[in-house]
Amino acid sequence: CHRRGIHAMGGMAAQIPVKNDPEANALALEKVIGDKEREVNTGHDGTWVAHPGLVETARMAFDLVMTGQNQIDKKLEMNIGATDLLTVPHGSITETGLRTNVNVTLQYLESWLRGVGCVPLNNLMEDAATAEISRAQIWQWIRHPRSATASGTKITEKMFLKVLDEEMDRIAEQIGPHRIEMGNFTNAKEIFRRVVQNDEFTEFITLPAYDYLE
Questions:
Q1: Neighbours of 59 (CB within 10 A)
Q2: Cα separation of 205 and 32, whole Å?
Q3: Euclidean distance between the first and final Cα of the chain, in Å?
Q4: Please, which residues have CB within 8 angstroms of residue 127's CB and are 6 or more apart in sequence?
Q5: β-strands 46-49, 9-13: how paired?
Q6: Is 73 helix (H, G, I), strand (E, B) or coil?
């Protein structure tokens, strides 16, 4: 951006203020501050947050470093090539991660079907991108011959369906069976199941979801 003389906007801090839990709220603020400090020190000219209550926190982090209106004069010396962009990242898959993907996608889809596209979940503001990443990972894990959890459990379609049922039960315990019945969880579960079991990767998870809108 700066090479082209335009402002560089940082990314969103997904954390949101946590009511009635000072310790969790302090941790969220700490993560936002760290995120914004990295951005401003890298040279970004602005940023955005998921909640208006965090605007002042982000502003303070930027004001400590950025004394002018922007940092366009700051240029980074970076040599990033095709090899860097195509290198497969290293990491492990955990059952907790798989379950989080399933749980969050179910709750997000249910909310999306009610017309709410930005949803606070686990003290984070989630949008369709979270559901897209989560279901894409699961779809790929099932089809990749070497995908297994850190404990050595192969990730299969059968395992996914089992976790899907269990996480639906977990959500029912948290919010109550009556809310499951009143909401769109049955449809959300069916959409999720379809896109993961479909041999052809669905372009967007919201495309089949449109069929369920009244």
A1: 14
A2: 29
A3: 43
A4: 108, 117, 118, 119
A5: parallel
A6: coil
Q: Could you count the other beta carbons within 10 Å of the beta carbon of residue 62?
A: 18
Which residues, other chains included, contact 193 with Cβ-Cβ below 8 Å and sequence gap of 6+? Answer: 161, 164
The two tokens of residue 136 are: 């894409």
The maximal CA–CA distance of the chain, rounded, in angstroms, is: 57
One digit per residue, the tens of pLDDT, for the chain of length 214 reads 998 999 999 988 899 999 889 999 999 999 999 999 999 999 999 999 989 999 999 999 999 999 999 999 988 888 889 999 999 888 899 999 999 999 999 999 999 999 999 999 988 899 999 999 999 999 999 999 888 999 999 999 999 999 999 999 999 998 887 777 777 999 999 999 999 999 999 999 999 999 998 6
Q: Which of 125, 137, 131 minimizes the C-alpha distance to 109?
A: 131
Lookup: tokens for 39: 């951005």
